[in-house]
Amino acid sequence: MKNKLVLISDFDGTISKKDFFHMVIGKLFHGKQNMLKPWEDYLSGKIKHIDALSGIFSQINLSQEDLDKFISTIEIDKYFYDTAQFCFNNKIPFYICSAGTNYYIKKRIPEELKKYNIVLISNDAEYSPATGMKLIAPSEDSYYYNENTGISKQAIVKKFKDDGFITIYAGDGKPDLKAARIADIVFAKDLLLDLCKKENIKTEHFDTFNDILNFLKGQI
Ligand SMILES: [Mg+2]
User: Fold this and answer.
1) Ligand 1 centroid to 50 CA: how many Å?
2) 153 and 68 assigned to the same domain
3) In a domain, 56, yes or no
């Protein structure tokens, strides 16, 4: 009998090469420290993760056209496309879960989301050059709602586990750790890899989505 597989992936730094958050700070704010205050407030426990991101992104004041251009420069792992195609062809559900916002993900990979039937679970956002970008958490009665980050990646993994799936999780950062703890197979890089090593969470080799694609091919 075929295994029931699901691929659940983070977006920033996992499907994309660089976090949108870091792109904004580096390329739009040029690393100016005072613009990072919301993030410092988050790190010191004063405000929630989602409010910190809103605090940072609210300082973006590009025209809509320039923002769209900026979003189009988000670099995507080139093997993501083949992986999405493979999942689609083999009826493996593909979920992208992001504690950022679906605003830039939908604008960056709109065709792929549709074509490969990828489910995107993230915070909404609204944007105007006058007020910047404001994140909007999902409804509190969503099974994946989390007060701090807006969405709970762990809840998405848990739902599929409860439904009898073998869960494959890919991520790169701290917000991925709780999901990685309970996923059946973990592809981790960067900070998530370090955190997994510390907790003795077994991980697969992961440089690019090609590693995930090869793993999936071996399961079919
Ligand atoms: Mg990430």
Assistant:
1) 14
2) no
3) yes
CATH number of 93's domain:
3.40.50.1000
**For residue 206, what are the domain limits?**
5-16+76-124+137-219
Is pLDDT at 169 greater than 80 in this prediction? yes
Sign of CA dihedral 143, 53, 170, 92: positive
* Distance from C-alpha of 89 to C-alpha of 108, rounded to nearest angstrom: 22
Give residue for tokens 């083999």: 90
Residues ≥6 apart with Cβ < 8 Å to 25:
31, 35, 36, 56
CA of 140 to the centre of ligand 1 (A): 23
Tens of pLDDT, residue by residue over 77-88, are 999 999 999 999
Q: What is the mean pLDDT of residues 13-27?
A: 94
Only one residue has tokens 């988050």, namely: 42
120's tokens: 């995107």
27 alpha carbon to ligand 1 midpoint, in Å?
Answer: 18
Q: Using CB atoms within 10 A of its CB, is residue 8 exposed (0-12), middle (13-18) or buried (19+)?
A: buried
pLDDT at 220 over 90: no
189 alpha carbon – ligand 1 mean position (Å): 9
